[in-house]
Amino acid sequence: MTVPAMLLSLNHVANRDAAYLETIFALSNGHFGLRAGDPFTPSATAGTIINGLYETTPIQYGESAFGYATHHQTTPLLPDLRQIELTTTTGTTFKTQTLVDKTLDLETGQLSETWRVSDGHHQLLVTLASVVSQQEQTSASLVYTIQSVDFTGELTINKSLTAPAQQADSDDPRQSRQVQTLTTTTEHPDGNTIAMSIRTEHSDQSIDLQLQADTGLTTHVTMNPGATFTYQVVAQVSQINTVMPAVSATNIAIEEDAKAYWHEFWNSSDVTIEANPELNRAIHYNLFQLAASAGRDGRTNIPAKGLSGTGYEGHYFWDTEMYMLPFFTYTNPAIAKQLLQYRHSILPQAKQRARTLGVDHGALFAWRTINGEEASAYYPAGTAQYHIDGDIAYAVDRYYNITGDHEFMVTTGLELMIETARFWQDFGNWSQINGKRQFGFYDVTGPDEYTAIVNNNYYTNRLAKFNLQRAAELVTEFADQATVLGVKADEADQWHQTADSVYLPYSEERQINEQDDSAFQKPVWPFETTPKQNYPLLLHYHPLNIYRYQVNKQADTLLADYLFMDLPHAQLKREYAYYEAITTHDSSLSRSIFSVLAAQLNDTKKATDYFMDTAQMDLVDLQGNASDGLHVANLGGSWLSIATGFGGIQFKDQCLHIDNHLPTAWPALTIRFCYRGRLLAVRYTHESTDVALIKGEPVELMVNGKRQQITTAERSSH
Amino acid sequence: MTVPAMLLSLNHVANRDAAYLETIFALSNGHFGLRAGDPFTPSATAGTIINGLYETTPIQYGESAFGYATHHQTTPLLPDLRQIELTTTTGTTFKTQTLVDKTLDLETGQLSETWRVSDGHHQLLVTLASVVSQQEQTSASLVYTIQSVDFTGELTINKSLTAPAQQADSDDPRQSRQVQTLTTTTEHPDGNTIAMSIRTEHSDQSIDLQLQADTGLTTHVTMNPGATFTYQVVAQVSQINTVMPAVSATNIAIEEDAKAYWHEFWNSSDVTIEANPELNRAIHYNLFQLAASAGRDGRTNIPAKGLSGTGYEGHYFWDTEMYMLPFFTYTNPAIAKQLLQYRHSILPQAKQRARTLGVDHGALFAWRTINGEEASAYYPAGTAQYHIDGDIAYAVDRYYNITGDHEFMVTTGLELMIETARFWQDFGNWSQINGKRQFGFYDVTGPDEYTAIVNNNYYTNRLAKFNLQRAAELVTEFADQATVLGVKADEADQWHQTADSVYLPYSEERQINEQDDSAFQKPVWPFETTPKQNYPLLLHYHPLNIYRYQVNKQADTLLADYLFMDLPHAQLKREYAYYEAITTHDSSLSRSIFSVLAAQLNDTKKATDYFMDTAQMDLVDLQGNASDGLHVANLGGSWLSIATGFGGIQFKDQCLHIDNHLPTAWPALTIRFCYRGRLLAVRYTHESTDVALIKGEPVELMVNGKRQQITTAERSSH
């Protein structure tokens, strides 16, 4: 592993906009995140973000209706733990003059930043080394090194905790809303410590923040030009509703904790794109931030923006299962399991939601949520995206296939499969379609949010079919547990029969799967007369305007094609061409899938072009809103592009497949991942596909279409 | 005309609930309405309602999007002008003990009410005679007759003006919201007068209310058992943004004004159902309240609840054109003209709205509005109901056909036809449907609000086809004016061609018109397992739940069948049977149409059953929410049931048709109406159809299928 690819600096990022940098260099550990704000300049967007902490406020509707989501759940932005105040005895304060450097070390998890600060007369150079603990997950080490450039005299260093200033609420649905109902109490148990307790008024959650400075919260130090003083702070962030442990870790211990964690992480997760330092850095950055975003406790999940920003209010979406879980399933199955455990924990709310939607059996997961209740205030692109049930079922099945974790299925997975299958069975309906009795789903919205409230969305139907089929198979495989869960024999039979008859729209004329019953009837969006600045369309056109045209925000039918990978090559090629022409990629979830499928179609140019955009999405600020937080699903998507696309890693027909689709321009690619208890490393070159068994028992794989027993470093000719 | 049918008393109404009675006995004159509250008990729902007065407040969306309606427009409930305070020198106050009587005289417009009031010791009988002026429209006469039952001593009478107490906002979309931003100033220019000026803070409208009591606002009178004192008050309500005239009318003048107006009204509008006093009273009541609800100044329209309640916030909907205008067009064309003039006055806002929806030409009228801007906060059952454009065009054409008002077409009607036609032309799209190049409309909602966001709603397409066709014909007929309005020859040609190719969904299997492209694919709503208390469905089921089934809130395809009346009898019969089985009539707009069509199908039983419900909807509180205001569209619907249904009055093939569909149970029916400057009276019996020319030149009509010259009282054998 070359060191440069593991260091991200200012010259690798899109711009120096303060809020953008706060996101890009944010540090997190699945429990909390620190946005990387300027510590000398309080910012309304810098602060601390806690995974799973939310405040509720009633949703105001212009016109309400039965069964609408009742409450927003909003993750608040908490005080910025990194703020520091440097003042002189004459009362002047040092403020940032220049940001000299920011460097994130992806091997150690340490962020090193340097600012030149000035009080108008003299200058200091301040370096801050920040690390968040990864194993115990409640600490951060903040080490400030203050060097006088030309200042002589007494310097007062002061640490305090202040809530970020409130911003105005935005109309952009991708941003967050402000939380006004936090109550805060602050204590100073001793001169070295400040402790803040924060409580959400309506959801009744609490969190404790604490700062401990080794030389005192207020420290006076005499400086001369060239002199250096090191000021060490340990920050602590309690678990939600949990009292802070009395003893805090040391700065060194936190650094060691993180270093060890990331070492282990890269050992099982590393991806190396050889001879391409820029892309190699980007993919490492993505995996680092993706891993840092995931809740690891079974009670939390992965917010759409991770813990790097409060965009989308800190909510969990289907993004987890479809875009992020594959990475964890293949590299850190323990985390994948916890993420699915979270879904299991909200099954009661999901069952209730199904009832509210008039479905008497099974569970319907909330489209966006933290606490399990639906928080989407716009059902056409929220609750109507029933496919989330199929996405979760698919993720359960994938987890089981890749890990072979039988115990998980018994305790968690099977019930998720059953309750989602029950939902589809009860939600859908039989009717005569094309002369056959078929099973369909009406008034649904697929992944593509530029097409809403349609009948028989191909993706939805395909996932429902899969869900019913797999649930039926799994209740046979786990017959005892199925009985415990109340599944009757005829119930599984019914799922089998229904699955066989789920209707899948297909256009005879175009010889491709059709996005929904009426997709091809509508005119194509007038792309040629749409000005570039009118993208994303959702910010410039009324939903009814967008919906009445053929235009996709993201992969929809193609997403199903990627998941099931069972289309004849020629049809996939037609389908890809058709849908690509009507897709805006206004969603960050789009390009990765187009990259994967292009790789499968051996269209190297498209595959790498889409991958470039995917891999560097936030580093070049492709979507223009990275300041609100990272596009974490896309971080996972970039791994999909590499692993499933170029690396051809996919479980199919009860076997793991590895297919070499290495782009022409890349000399070699190495991917590490786990499969049923083994750790494997695959090195792809244009000559060969080498599968190394790093750890574990020998295993049989399909490599480039040939069955192969992997016993140690195996070599397969290409 | 028998007198009993013209008197509505307490024993003719559903119950004695205070808010219900406030609605039923409300008096209005197109400009303002007085809810008939208990004058001794301030009520949060009693007060004064001004047509066209509204306050704006920003619409709060849980999740907003481009082009959403930005502001609520809410008609506030203003002070109750009828309140009076009766106190004794010992400080006791007389409060209602018993409501003795309420009688509304439909011939004079006078409401007479009697209460027995008590101060806990003694009793008075108080009678209030209320009349609102109909010609100058800004005054009301309130005459209180106070008789002592057993009270001896000095009685203090006091009149003041107090704003109604605020109620909590409701989640029922049919109710109103509260207005909190009125500023009020009150003056007492002299001891007899109280003047209140009310201003809406955001919409910047003003209205002045004034009370003048002949004996002083505070009057002391010595009472003995049996003694009577008459206290006369003239109330005045200014026009919006207009200063009150200095001199007010006298009580007598107001009574005379109303009496003369209603005399003239019944002369041109009377409907008599013979030998059926109850129904006869109901229809008279309906026409009285309908006439009292209509704005007559070209700047206002007919709120969904008239001026009898603030339900639906005082908004104007398509109800006007489709349900209420027919009555005015046939009986009071001057009012019909003013109502269409209102639409013309908001054309600029409608053009702007079309642009916001991505349609470059023409106008799209707001689904619900007062000031012309869209105020619907739920576009799937608001803005998506594009058919309002066709409804307005249809109403223009009907007005022109029935009145022959050439001048109106030049100044107003033609432009409405053109701008709506332009909208359809630009909004729709060509595609191959059933092997033909046809013109369709995607993602629309028809009249039936239990089915939303569908493709090619039959009703919408049918109206669009009509609109394009008639616009093309009328620009030929009014060629000069069309040129002034910028219509090019090829534009009209295009409308012709498009109209010819508008796609109309038809089910070959069922041999009936299909509500939309996917209507019959969906399962039928599980009516058999739906408890009675779960109606109206909209209050008990999520929209997605309702939408995914075949279930109609109201006539949809059948409404088109009624408008165009061109289906073969057998098909109409099939269509009626099919849609009737899936219609809940949860909308008050439904039953009248089912009655009309049943009459046309000679199904007398259904026609009269639906008519009974229609005619007495508010008098029996069929919908359960008359307390929020009258269902004014249904008032118009009851006239449609009679005139178009039983009376067969309809303009078709360039001629007015009269067809006798008199129900078996009725011995005779007489309908008065105007046609091209004539006043006609048609008496239907089971033996004959007699058309009398009351006023005007001879005219040719089709009576029971035969062309007939009406010169004087004509008799046509049945």
Descriptive key words:
five-stranded antiparallel sheet, Gal_mutarotase_sf_dom (chains A, B), Beta-galactosidase, Chain A, domain 5, nine-stranded antiparallel sheet, homodimer, alpha+beta, 718 residues
What does this structure look like?
Two copies of one chain form a homodimer. The first copy, chain A, is α+β, with helices and mostly antiparallel strands. Chain A has a domain at 4-57 and 74-165 and 175-267: Glycoside hydrolase, family 65, N-terminal domain (Beta-galactosidase, Chain A, domain 5, Distorted Sandwich), CATH 2.70.98.40. In chain A, 30% of the residues lie in helices and 24% in strands. Chain A contains 17 helices and 30 strands. The first copy, chain A, has a nine-stranded antiparallel β-sheet with strand order 1-8-9-10-11-17-15-14-13. In chain A, a hairpin with a 4-residue loop joins β21 (506-507) and β22 (512-513). In chain A, α15 (591-600) runs parallel beside α17. The longest helix of chain A is centred in the middle third of the chain and has 22 residues, at 406-427. Chain A is globular. The model of chain A has no long low-confidence stretch (mean pLDDT 95). At the A-B interface, β19 and α12 of A face β19 and α12 of B.
Distance between the termini of chain A: 24 Å
- The name CATH uses for the topology of the domain at 4-57 and 74-165 and 175-267 in chain A is Beta-galactosidase, Chain A, domain 5
Strand order of the largest sheet of chain A: 1-8-9-10-11-17-15-14-13
Number of helical stretches of at least 4 residues of chain A: 17
Give the largest interface. A-B, 51 and 51 residues
CATH architecture of the domain at 4-57 and 74-165 and 175-267 in chain A: Distorted Sandwich
Gyration radius of chain A, in Å = 26 Å
**Helicity range of chain A:** 25-40%
General shape of chain A = globular
Can you tell me the residue ranges of chain A where pLDDT is under 50 for at least 5 consecutive residues?
Answer: none
